[in-house]
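Thread title: Can someone regenerate the structure for this chain?

I was given the following input by a collaborator and told the matching structure tokens would be attached. They weren't. Posting the sequence so someone can regenerate them.
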Amino acid sequence: MNMTQIKYFLMAAKCKNFTKAADKLFITQPALSRQISSMEAELNVQLFVRNNRSVQLTPAAVVLEEEFEKILNMYNVAVAKAVNSFAGMRGELNIGVLEGTYVGDLFPNVLQYLAEFYPQVKINLRNYSFNNLVEKLYSNELDLIITLKFDVENREKIDYQVIAAGHDYVVVHRNHRLADAKYVKLSDFKDDTFIMVSPDDSEMSPKLIIQACESHGFYPKVKFATSLAEEMLWVEAGVGVCILDSRNILHNNETVRFLQVEGLSDPSLTLAWNTDHYNPMKETFKSVFFEKTES
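Best answer:
Regenerated them for you:
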């Protein structure tokens, strides 16, 4: 038995479905089944009770799952320490996060892992609005940024991966005439002032909002803000309405209401990076981040 087989077994035990487990392991379902059968033959015990739709763990498999988790963790610790010792990983990793975006559920496991296995690497997290994030990514002041998909998907030398799906909302003050409405259309706000970041901060954000308004039969009255933080403040003050995504921290603010409308753009949250910039810890962070957030 080897570590690969242990990893395969643990994924199959977690998914309780060989097809799903194989997909996550990037192997075929028959290949996974052969490895599990090989383990069962070696141990002379049945590990899974199979049926057409799922698999169930036998009592022996339940015991092995707990013990193999310990073994795999010890293995990962040993490998990480060896790699760190050889590579001498140190320095800084600078990560920019779109201001006003909730990422509290995405970072804890990753940061705990890096603190344990890469203690000599300093992780810096900073908040910026749209344009500052991109500028600092191009200038290599930031190694990675977390921002909305529409603001990076067509930029040269920037690659990205979606980390959380999002949805657009019209955000209004709680005293707004439609604050308690269950269903709204964008055209319901044709007489309102739309607060949006200026084209200097994001070329795409105001462009997409204005195009969406025009497709609903009106050109919006616009008040530009210099940053996303300023836009949020104006809406909190009841000066106008705005379009924000589902991860914006105002979502839990009692001063405003989030009213769902048809999608105006793709505000999915992404992790993005400059393909011309090399930092070995950037690759390590990406690998750990996607492993921890997908598990």
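Residues 59-87 form the longest helix (29 residues).
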